[in-house]
Specification:
Layout (H helix, E strand, L loop, with lengths): L4 H16 L7 H12 L12 E7 L3 E8 L7 E8 L5 E6 L12 H12 L3 E5 L26 H17 L4 E11 L1 H12 L5 E5 L5 H9 L17 H4 L2 H6 L5 E7 L7 H18 L5 E6 L7 H14 L50 H18 L5 H8 L11 E8 L2 E11 L2 E10 L7 E7 L4 H6 L1 H8 L3 E5 L11 H8 L6 H18 L7 E11 L2 H11 L5 E5 L29 H8 L3 E6 L4 H10 L4
Parallel strand pairs: 4-5, 4-6, 6-7, 7-8, 8-9, 13-14, 13-15, 15-16, 16-17
Antiparallel strand pairs: 1-2, 2-3, 3-5, 10-11, 11-12, 12-14
Helix pairs in contact: 1-6, 3-10, 4-5, 14-19, 16-17, 17-18
């Protein structure tokens, strides 16, 4: 039963797919509303401001209008409007670029696509998503965790900006507001899917190089090959596997005209997963008689908006807007990219430039950094939340955290027993839940007497050995306590790629926080029911202590389990303290919308009259523990 963290998530996603796909009784409206809530779409306020048109660049048969619009106050967006140089109203699409991080709207593939589509008679509004192109001076804008605590996801922000671009198109005299679509490849396609689900104004949705099963995306991420580097939070939508399979979600787009294009050589989005989704869409379409609205095409090549993918998407859009596409694919682009060698194509022979090159396609004088702005925006939302937060009950806390399995009756296995200095140390295997074991180190004083020792449960992000060696654990041992130091799943000997596993777990109904709470309660259950002919423990004096953010985990476990006598932490004392720029704290603690329901004081209120000591500075932890642990000694 060796535990590999990602395997649990994948297995659970597979299980959820059985009930959230074709057999799901959810209506399109149900799925739409759940997606709106999951991505935090309605929590992002918009303002009505006039776009600022900077320059019109007249080209061969079309005009590129450079502009800036600001649908969310404090977040200006640079954009290009490609429009046919012809009189009358034109059909139009919003083109949200994929993760062409450095260049965004100026990426060669993106410009080439827009040129060929506008030459076919369809206007294109293409902008830099947050964290890309002129809205990027670092790589973290797709990875700010703080907004999640107030219910805002990265994709929710991007969907809001995309649909604000639709608002802009509708306001223009040159655009036919009854013929508006969305197009995107990779991350831009993902955004376009959810924007199309939400907004009935969208008549055509053209999606490239993104559609796959939830399991395929999770597997790619959770095994450390996808959402790496603490910067990408665009795909990990909370509880998405519960809301519906990808096929079920795509089926809600009817009666819109939809095309899905998948590349045959795209390992990040394997063709087998794409075909599985398409089979499900077709199965649902057969029961509703809507096959005519959906098209699926496979093309040669790899990931991205290369010529085969681009031509297929362009033809579909043009045909559904009653336009004709020329026979030759135009390769010329109107503006020089700022990064001729972007990260995905740069090599040792052709490395990236040290900084962006000048381009006539830019709209800002200088690129802007939205990292701090996103975090400050989220902090500002707290002012209204704190005043309306309801009283937290134990039942509500359990509902927020998700289903936690009941402890199993199987006995803990002692796999090693050794003596060190003043203590006996046991290596344990604790069965946390069905088919999942965690390792733990259990240090007991050698002086076996009727003066029973309390137990100090030490939680540490690096697992059992780091917990046992910590200043806190050593102080507890010095004061005559036994110490239980567990490898909570994904730590210590089962260490995982924390960012990938923690964020992938959001997509199921039991995130990594829930899973580690389960492990903690299993440890308390072991102590409470422990039977041994050796050294006995004081089962009425069980203390949980966590270092830094793991103190918050201990606090939650204490609130849920009355058998814990006291709890404490060194370092962080509030979930609000997690709202920092470029956080390196585990995403496990950034539970979606958590601060709308609780903060530390709400948990303390549940725990009272049991005592808590939170946020002790590391430099004074020994002194603080002396008085805190003395209280429980008889």
């Amino acid at each position: 039963m060796a535990y590999v963290p990602a395997e649990f998530i994948v297995a659970r996603a597979l299980e959820l797919a059985k009930s959230s796909g074709v057999s799901s009784a959810k209506t399109n409206s149900d799925i739409r509303n759940e997606i709106i809530d999951a991505i935090g779409f309605n929590k992002i306020p918009t303002s009505i401001t006039e776009p600022k048109f900077i320059e019109d660049v007249k080209l061969d048969g079309y005009i590129v209008r450079k502009l800036i619009f600001e649908p969310i106050e404090g977040f200006p967006i640079p954009a290009h409007l490609y429009i046919p140089d012809l009189p009358g109203k034109h059909p139009a699409v919003v083109h949200t670029p994929g993760h062409w991080m450095e260049d965004g709207k100026l990426a060669g593939e993106v410009q080439r696509f827009n040129v060929n589509l506008v030459k076919a008679g369809v206007a294109v509004l293409c902008f830099d998503p947050v964290g890309q192109g002129e809205r990027r001076v670092g790589w973290h804008q797709h990875g700010q965790l703080a907004p999640l605590l107030v219910g805002i996801t990265n994709i929710g922000w991007m969907v809001r900006e995309t649909l604000s671009a639709v608002d802009l198109l509708e306001s223009l005299e040159s655009i036919d507001s009854q013929k508006i679509g969305l197009v995107g490849a990779s991350g831009g396609g993902f955004i376009s899917i959810f924007a199309s689900v939400i907004d009935d104004r969208i008549k055509v949705a053209a999606i490239g190089c993104i559609v796959n099963t939830h399991v395929s995306q999770i597997r790619d991420a959770a095994y450390g090959t996808g959402w790496d580097g603490w910067l990408d939070l665009c795909n990990q939508i909370p509880r998405l596997c519960v809301i519906g399979t990808v096929g079920k979600i795509l089926s809600t787009l009817d009666p819109k005209k939809v095309i899905i294009v998948s590349a045959l050589s795209d390992p990040g989005f394997p063709i087998a997963g794409a075909r599985e989704v398409i089979d499900e869409v077709r199965s649902i379409a057969e029961t509703t008689g809507t096959q005519k609205n959906f098209k699926y095409v496979e093309v040669k090549g790899g990931h991205g908006l290369h010529e085969s993918t681009a031509i297929t998407l362009i033809r579909f859009i043009a045909e559904n807007f009653e336009k004709n596409v020329g026979s030759d694919f135009i390769s010329d682009i109107p503006f020089a990219p700022q990064w001729p060698h972007s990260h995905e194509v740069a090599t040792a022979e052709n490395p990236q430039h040290f900084r962006p090159l000048p381009s006539k396609g830019t709209c800002f004088e200088f690129p802007i950094d939205t990292n701090e702005a996103l975090v400050n925006f989220s902090k500002g939302m707290l002012l209204g939340i704190e005043n309306i937060r309801p009283v937290l009950s134990l039942e509500r806390l359990r509902e927020i955290l998700g289903p936690i399995p009941k402890p199993l009756s199987k006995r803990v296995q002692v796999v090693q027993h050794r003596s060190e200095d003043r203590w006996h140390i046991q290596t344990l295997k604790i069965q946390s839940e069905l088919e999942i074991e965690i390792n733990a180190q259990f240090a007991l004083p050698k002086n076996w007497t009727d003066d029973l020792c309390g137990v100090f449960v030490m939680l540490h992000k690096n697992g059992a050995q780091s917990a046992l060696n910590s200043v806190e654990a050593q102080k507890a041992l010095d004061m005559g306590y036994a110490v239980l130091a567990p490898d909570l799943r994904g730590t210590g000997k089962t260490a995982c790629s924390e960012f990938e596993v923690a964020t992938a777990s959001w997509m199921i109904d039991r995130d990594l926080l829930n899973q580690r709470i389960t492990d903690g309660i299993a440890c308390i259950d072991f102590l409470s029911t422990r039977y041994s002919t050796g050294q006995q423990i004081d089962k009425g004096n069980i203390v949980i202590w966590g270092q830094e953010e793991y103190g918050l985990l201990g606090l939650i476990i204490t609130a849920l389990d009355h058998r814990v006598n006291r709890c404490g932490s060194s370092g962080i004392a509030s979930f609000q303290e997690l709202m920092v720029v470029n956080s390196e704290i585990s995403p496990m603690f950034y539970k979606h919308d958590l601060l709308r329901s609780l903060d530390v004081q709400d948990l303390v209120d549940i725990i009272t009259p049991r005592s808590c000591k939170l946020g002790v500075p590391q430099k004074s932890v020994e002194k603080s523990l002396s008085s805190f642990l003395m209280v429980g000694k008889k």
